[in-house]
């Protein structure tokens, strides 16, 4: 993942943004999810990628999408 921004986030900023997002979600549930900012979402994606889970997430999403496509074809056949 690459961030196309003049001033990329520092590790401290990434963690702080992630923490704020988690607090919003934990305290407000679905409403908290709606309150998460673009920077907080970006920070969460960066953290996932920086911890090495980005590759796993991408491959899992592709596998699930293929599975869902196959199931849809079987249903409509």
Strand-residue fraction? under 5%
List segments where confidence is low: pLDDT < 50 over at least 5 consecutive residues.
Answer: none
Number of helical stretches of at least 4 residues? 4
Q: Please bin the fraction of helical residues.
A: over 70%
Structural class by SSE content: mainly alpha
Overall form: flat
Question: Radius of gyration, rounded?
Answer: 16 Å
Q: Major β-sheet, in short?
A: none
User: N- to C-terminal separation?
Assistant: 38 Å
Order of helices and strands: HHHH
Query: How many runs of DSSP E, i.e. beta strands?
Result: 0
User: Residue-averaged pLDDT, rounded?
Assistant: 89
Describe the protein in words.
The structure is a single chain. With 77 residues, the protein is mainly α. It has helices spanning 11-28, 30-35, 38-50, 54-76. Helix 1 (11-28) crosses helix 3 (38-50). The longest helix has 23 residues, at 54-76. The chain is flat and about 50 Å long. The model has no long low-confidence stretch (mean pLDDT 89).
């Amino acid at each position: 993942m690459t961030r196309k921004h003049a001033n990329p986030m520092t590790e401290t900023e990434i963690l702080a943004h992630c923490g704020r997002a988690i607090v919003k979600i934990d305290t407000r549930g679905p409403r908290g999810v709606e309150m998460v900012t673009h920077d907080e979402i970006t920070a969460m994606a960066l953290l996932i990628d920086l911890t090495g889970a980005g590759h796993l997430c991408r491959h899992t999403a592709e596998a699930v999408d293929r599975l869902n496509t196959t199931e849809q074809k079987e249903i409509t056949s």
